[in-house]
Amino acid sequence: MIHRLAPGLYERVGNLFRPLRFHLASAAVLDGIRPGRVFVDDLERPKAAFMVSPEGCYLVGDPWIAWFNRAFNQALGTGELFDGDVRVLFLVVNQRAGETS
What we know:
Layout: E1 3-5, H1 14-17, H2 24-30, E2 37-40, E3 48-53, E4 56-61, H3 66-78, E5 91-93
Parallel strand pairs: 4-5
Antiparallel strand pairs: 1-2, 2-3, 3-4
């Protein structure tokens, strides 16, 4: 199950979204300047997150959480992550997610 994170708790995903801070839309949602929704794998210690903003969607964090990937895929298919009628999904991912040194 994917959990919706309350806006007052967005600081919990700040580190996950740090590589995408150059995308001003994602930064604006986290800063409370623009509307958006954030969904996470764990409400207390998120390791993966999905953000819906007016300008696009952002997927960050650990790409190897199999149950989250399945739940995310199902939620995308049912449309439960979106409000209103979404006809096009513009998704931004961190291409370095999951890399190890």
